[in-house]
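Design request, tokens follow.
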């Protein structure tokens, strides 16, 4: 799983956080896949775009727990209180 750190810190604004998550989930912002990835997914009957919105204080451990269940993890907020 690819981990992209695009996080911000500080006190989260609920509206801003919702807008950022919605922007990543839009269909017109699909990740570009290579031809072999598309063929493999088609052969295995899988969807190419899989994501989950959640909370974690340790993204690398969480990514390892999910394994190949999701394509990428995008960090949108990071707390300094953990």
């Amino acid at each position: 799983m690819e981990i992209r750190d695009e996080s911000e810190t500080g006190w989260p604004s609920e509206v801003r956080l919702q807008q950022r998550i919605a922007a990543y989930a839009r269909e017109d912002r699909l990740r570009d896949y290579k031809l072999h990835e598309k063929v493999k997914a088609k052969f295995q009957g899988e969807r190419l775009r899989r994501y989950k919105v959640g909370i974690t204080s340790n993204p690398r451990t969480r990514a390892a727990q999910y394994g190949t269940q999701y394509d990428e993890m995008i960090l949108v907020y990071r707390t300094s209180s953990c």
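Comment from the thread starter after seeing the answer: thanks! Residues 14-25 form the longest helix (12 residues).
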